[in-house]
Write a sequence for this structure.
C-alpha cells in the first residue's frame, strides 16, 4: 500500500509540474492577451468593452490582412503537397545510391530558422539577386516559395512514411488487369494515400498561416499576414488592444486548421492494409523518371538555389568582388550598423539561451512523455490523459508572436514575485522551451508507447518499485531518441524569432533578431553583414540537425537476447495510440520516431 501511494504521488507530481509550467507561462499569457481586447480603462476602473471588435474587424486593412493570410497559406499548401508527393515517392518507394543521406539532409529545411530562409530568398529574388529579373521582390510568389521551402520536406516525410508501408498488391493487380501505370496509381494508391495527404495539407496550412519571419522579411507591410500585423500594431503603434482583437482572428484560423487536421486524422485511422515491415524499394525505371525529375528540380531550385545565393552574396563586398568583409563585420561591426554588440556576442548569447531552453524542454518533455505513455484502466484517467496531451500540443498551434506578446503583458511580477521578468533574460528560454516542447514530446512518446507492457509487468511482478521500472526499462529505451529530441529542441530554440522579437532586451540581441535588424537597415554594409550572420545561423542549425538525425535508432529492440519485431504496435493504424497520426502507421518497437511523427498535433 505504501509503495502504491508513493507511485501515485510520483505520477501526480510528474503531471503537475508541466501543468503548472504551461498554466503560468502559456495559458495565462494567452488568455490575458485575449482579455486585453475586451477591457478598457474608465473612471471606475477596468470595465468590459467589446467595441474593439467592430472597430478592428470593420477595418478594410484587417480584412485585407486576413485574406492575405488565407491566400498565402492556401497557395503554399497546394504547392507543398504537389511538390512533396513526388519527393515522397522518390525517397520512400525507390532505391538509389544516397537515398538515406538525402532523407536526412531534407530534414534540415523544416527546422531552418525562418529568418534565414527569408533572407535567403531575399538574396535570390531581391535587388542584386540572380533572379531579380523575375520581379518577385516583396511579392506573393516569393512568400509562397519560401513557405514551400519549409513544408515540402514535411509532406514528403509524412506521406512517405505512410506510403512505404502500404501493401502494393492492389496496384499490381490493377496493372495485371490492364490498367496503365498512371491509372492504377490514381485508382488504387492515391485513394489509400488520401487521408495522409489531407492531414499533411491541414498541418502545412497551420504552419503557413502562423508564419512570421518569412512574411516579415519578404512581404513587408504590403503583404502582411495576421502574425506580422499583430507585431506591427504592438511595436510600431503600441496598439495593444487592436493587436489583441486581431489575435482572435488568428485563434479562429488556427482552431479551424487543428479541427480539420484532427478530423482528417481520425478519418484516416481506418483499416488500410499495411505491411509489418517496409517492402523492398524498387530500382527506378523509365516510368519513374517524371517523379524523379520533379523531385530533382525541387531540390535544386527550391532548396539549393536560395541557400547558394545566400552564401555567394554574403561573400560579395561593396565593390562587387569576393571577400570576407561581411564576416569580419560580425566581429567588428562598422559604425552605423544597428547592433548593440558584435554579432559574435549575439551568437554566444543565442547558443546559451538555446541550451537552457533545450534542457528545460527536455526535462518537461520526459515527464510528459512518461505520463502519456501509461495505459490507465480507468476511463476517467484515459480521458484526462487525452486532455493533457491536447494541452501539451497547444503551443504548436498558437503562434510564437501571440505567445511573446502575452508574456510581455503578464510577466510583470507574476504571482506577486518581486521581479519584473520582462526585464530579465529568463523569459526568452522559457518562451523557446514552450515552442520546442511539443517536438520533444512527439519524439519521445512513440518510443515509450512502443515498449511491450509485459516487460514492465514482469519487472513489477519480480518486486521492482515503479521508480526502478522507470530506471531499468523506460529510460534505457529512450536511449538515442533522447539525444534526437535534445537536438531538435536546441535547433528549434536557436532559430526562434517570433516570441524572442518581443522579449529581447536592448543590448542583448539574439542572432535571429540581429539578422532581421541588419537586413532591414539602410546603413552601408548592414545588409551584407546580415547575409553573413544568416549563413552562420543556418550552418549552426544544420549542423545540429544533421547530428541529431544521426542519433536515430536503426535496428530492432532485442528481447530476451534475440531480435524480435513487434510489428505494427506503435501507430494508431496499427492498433496502438502513439498520437502521432497518419505519419506513423507502424514501427518496430524501440525504433526512434520518424520526423513526420514529430509534426502531428
Amino acid at each position: 500500500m505504501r509503495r502504491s501511494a508513493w507511485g501515485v504521488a510520483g505520477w501526480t507530481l510528474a503531471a503537475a509540474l508541466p501543468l503548472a509550467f504551461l498554466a503560468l507561462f502559456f495559458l495565462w499569457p494567452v488568455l490575458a492577451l485575449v482579455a486585453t481586447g475586451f477591457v478598457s480603462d474608465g473612471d471606475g476602473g477596468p470595465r468590459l468593452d467589446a467595441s474593439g471588435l467592430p472597430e478592428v474587424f470593420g477595418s478594410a486593412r484587417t480584412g485585407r490582412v486576413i485574406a492575405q493570410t488565407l491566400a498565402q497559406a492556401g497557395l503554399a499548401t497546394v504547392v507543398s503537397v504537389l511538390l512533396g508527393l513526388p519527393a515522397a515517392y522518390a525517397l520512400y518507394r525507390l532505391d538509389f545510391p544516397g537515398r538515406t543521406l538525402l532523407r536526412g539532409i531534407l530534414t534540415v529545411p523544416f527546422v531552418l530558422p525562418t529568418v534565414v530562409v527569408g533572407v535567403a530568398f531575399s538574396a535570390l529574388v531581391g535587388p542584386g539577386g540572380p533572379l531579380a529579373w523575375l520581379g518577385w521582390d516583396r511579392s506573393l510568389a516569393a512568400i509562397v516559395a519560401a513557405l514551400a521551402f519549409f513544408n515540402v520536406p514535411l509532406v514528403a516525410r509524412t506521406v512517405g512514411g505512410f506510403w512505404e508501408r502500404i501493401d502494393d498488391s492492389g496496384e499490381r493487380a490493377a496493372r495485371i488487369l490492364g490498367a496503365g501505370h498512371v491509372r492504377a496509381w490514381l485508382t488504387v494508391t492515391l485513394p489509400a494515400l488520401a487521408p495522409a495527404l489531407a492531414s499533411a495539407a491541414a498541418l502545412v496550412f497551420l504552419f503557413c498561416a502562423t508564419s512570421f519571419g518569412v512574411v516579415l522579411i519578404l512581404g513587408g507591410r504590403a503583404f502582411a499576414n495576421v502574425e506580422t500585423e499583430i507585431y506591427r500594431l504592438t511595436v510600431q503603434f503600441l496598439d495593444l488592444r487592436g493587436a489583441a482583437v486581431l489575435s482572435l482572428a488568428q485563434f479562429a484560423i488556427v482552431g479551424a486548421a487543428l479541427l480539420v487536421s484532427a478530423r482528417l486524422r481520425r478519418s484516416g485511422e481506418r483499416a488500410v492494409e499495411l505491411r509489418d515491415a517496409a517492402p523492398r524499394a524498387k530500382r527506378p525505371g523509365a516510368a519513374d523518371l517524371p517523379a524523379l525529375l520533379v523531385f530533382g528540380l525541387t531540390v535544386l531550385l527550391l532548396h539549393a538555389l536560395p541557400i547558394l545565393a545566400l552564401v555567394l552574396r554574403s561573400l560579395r563586398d561593396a565593390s562587387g568582388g569576393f571577400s570576407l568583409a561581411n564576416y569580419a563585420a560580425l566581429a567588428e561591426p562598422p559604425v552605423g550598423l544597428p547592433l548593440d554588440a558584435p554579432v559574435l556576442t549575439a551568437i554566444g548569447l543565442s547558443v546559451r539561451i538555446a541550451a537552457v531552453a533545450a534542457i528545460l524542454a527536455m526535462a518537461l518533455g520526459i515527464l510528459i512523455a512518461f505520463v502519456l505513455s501509461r495505459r490507465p484502466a480507468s476511463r476517467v484517467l484515459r480521458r484526462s490523459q487525452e486532455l493533457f496531451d491536447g494541452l501539451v500540443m497547444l503551443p504548436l498551434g498558437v503562434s510564437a508572436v501571440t505567445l511573446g506578446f502575452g508574456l510581455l503583458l503578464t510577466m510583470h511580477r507574476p504571482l506577486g514575485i518581486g521581479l519584473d521578468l520582462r526585464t530579465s533574460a529568463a523569459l526568452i528560454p522559457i518562451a523557446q522551451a514552450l515552442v520546442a516542447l511539443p517536438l520533444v514530446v512527439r519524439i519521445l512518446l512513440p518510443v515509450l508507447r512502443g515498449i511491450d507492457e509485459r516487460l514492465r509487468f514482469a519487472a513489477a511482478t519480480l518486486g521492482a518499485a515503479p521508480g526502478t521500472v522507470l530506471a531499468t526499462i523506460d529510460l534505457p529505451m529512450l536511449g538515442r531518441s533522447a539525444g534526437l529530441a535534445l537536438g531538435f529542441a536546441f535547433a528549434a530554440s536557436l532559430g526562434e524569432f517570433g516570441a524572442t522579437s518581443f522579449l529581447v532586451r536592448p543590448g542583448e540581441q539574439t542572432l535571429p533578431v540581429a539578422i532581421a535588424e541588419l537586413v532591414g537597415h539602410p546603413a552601408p554594409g548592414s545588409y551584407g553583414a546580415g547575409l553573413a550572420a544568416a549563413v552562420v545561423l543556418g550552418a549552426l542549425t544544420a549542423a545540429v540537425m544533421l547530428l541529431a538525425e544521426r542519433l536515430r535508432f536503426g535496428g530492432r529492440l532485442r528481447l530476451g537476447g534475440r531480435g524480435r519485431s513487434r510489428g505494427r504496435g506503435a501507430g494508431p493504424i496499427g492498433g496502438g495510440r502513439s498520437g502521432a497520426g497518419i505519419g506513423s502507421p507502424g514501427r518496430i518497437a524501440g525504433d526512434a520516431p520518424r520526423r513526420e511523427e514529430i509534426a502531428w498535433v
In short: The domain at 26-38+60-283+290-309+324-599 is CATH 1.10.3720.10 (MetI-like fold). Residues 2-36 form the longest helix (35 residues). The beta strands are 39-42, 45-48, 558-559, 562-563.
